[in-house]
Specification:
It is a single chain. With 425 residues, the protein is of the alpha+beta class. Helix content is 20%, strand content 36%. The protein contains 9 helices and 20 strands.
Length: 425
């Protein structure tokens, strides 16, 4: 179909209202398909996907939502309960909803629990509110839905920034080489009497936390909310406590003197399968695989249609360009998503990336893909579109490792095993 014919058909046969009605009907399906549409040819990341088909032999409590590996390490004593005096600050407390403002309140903060490894820094903060503060809240601690420290900065003794609230970056002249790129999730662990305990799960991406011996915690605001729709981490909250909290937390030797244990490949049931890296940490095991010759006939070009190509070629000021009329583009994209050609294309890539991996120690215990806040799992298709590389963290810790560890791989309907042995000193 020529460009002129396509344009005339758009003008003569389809009104914008028609596109909007069609879009409304298929919105739910569109959202599902568009998430699939974003698959990149050479890189694929996953978070929180369970690979193994059956349940692990050993299941540890998932402490703080950081993963069973972290939970098991904590059960084995990999946790610190600092003996520290509360940091007390004279506080101004303001309720934005009522306008009430109270000065000279004492609000104390201390750290109850600490876990730090290469990838996780989890801290339980204990905040004690005064009677007057509860009056401003107009309730008890149990009525609080969320609490956060929107300007908190945590540095170690070598001036590494192990955490900084996003709003604070503009206030510091930072050495980028000493800033750890982190993510965070938080939740209130306890709400009773005058006490609020909030857990901060801080985690890294590809970087490792330094082997810090002490953490210096500093913040000047505590946001409190009784409304579940308000994010106190973003600097909002019906109630704000303003003060000055600045204290040090000692990291125990077992955490700052942590060592990793490397494994190497001993044997494989598939000559095309190799383990590129295998490292056991206190709270998990990271495994990297190279699976050669496992992909066949992967399509190179993503399907399209004459209409979509035409719309992509239009100048921005055209009434049917994507910039001016996303409904039109969505309409033709949805039609493409429904086509057999596109479904076949997506299935080919789904099949190429599909792999199930789990670990076994010599005691026969099975260990799964780590489920936690940290992004986990990477897959890459090679340039020749024949091989797949894979890496992920698993819940096998130093407390579970044996002299040999088996990596079980299910790919293309076949199960293979790679036996690892502990690397000599």
């Amino acid at each position: 179909m020529s460009r002129d014919n396509i344009l005339n058909n758009l003008k003569d046969n389809i009104s914008v209202s028609n596109f909007r009605r069609e879009k409304a009907k298929k919105d739910k399906l569109k959202n599902v398909l568009q998430s699939t549409f974003a698959v990149i040819l050479c890189t694929f990341s996953i978070t929180g996907i369970v690979f193994a088909r059956d349940i692990s032999v050993k299941v540890y409590e998932n402490f703080w939502g950081t993963g069973n590996g972290v939970g098991h390490a904590m059960e084995q004593g990999y946790i610190e309960k600092p003996e520290m005096e509360p940091e007390v600050s004279s506080t101004v407390m303001e309720n934005e909803e009522t306008g009430e403002k109270v000065e000279d309140l004492d609000t104390s903060v201390k750290v109850d629990e600490l876990v730090m490894d290469d990838f996780n820094l989890s801290i339980t903060f204990n905040v004690t509110l005064s009677d007057k503060a509860l009056e401003v809240i107009q309730g008890e601690a149990k009525d609080v839905w969320e609490m956060g420290f929107p300007d908190m900065v945590i540095k170690d003794e070598e001036d590494y920034v192990v955490f900084m609230a996003p709003q604070q970056y503009k206030n510091y002249d930072l050495d980028s080489e000493k800033v750890i790129n982190t993510g965070i999730n938080t939740f209130l662990e306890e709400r009773s009497g005058h006490t609020l305990k909030v857990v901060y799960n801080i985690y890294t991406g590809s970087a490792h936390f330094p082997k810090s011996k002490e953490l210096n915690v500093k913040f000047g605001k505590i946001n409190i909310s009784k409304d579940e729709t308000i994010d106190t981490m973003s600097g909002r909250g019906e109630i704000t406590l303003t003060g000055d909290w600045d204290f040090k937390v000692d990291v125990p030797e077992k955490m700052y003197n942590r060592q990793r244990v490397e494994y190497v490949q001993k044997s494989s049931t598939n000559k095309d399968y190799t383990v590129e890296s295998a490292i056991v940490y206190d709270t998990g095991m990271e495994v990297g695989l190279e699976l050669k010759n496992v992909i066949n006939d992967l399509p190179v070009e993503r399907p399209t249609t004459p209409e979509i190509e035409f719309l992509d070629s239009l100048p921005k000021d055209n009434e049917f360009s994507l910039a001016n009329n996303s409904d039109v583009y969505s309409y033709f994209s949805n039609k493409l998503f429904y086509s057999d050609e596109y479904k076949s294309y997506m299935k080919a890539y789904d099949d190429a990336y599909e792999v199930e991996v789990y670990l076994l120690n010599s005691d026969g215990e099975k260990f799964e893909f780590t489920m936690g806040p940290r992004e986990n799992g990477d897959k890459d298709i090679s340039e020749d579109r024949k091989s797949l590389s894979y890496s992920a963290m698993y819940d096998l810790t130093k407390y579970d490792m044996t002299d040999e560890i088996t990596v079980v791989i299910n790919k293309n309907g076949r199960e293979d095993k790679i036996v690892l042995e502990r690397k000599g000193e």
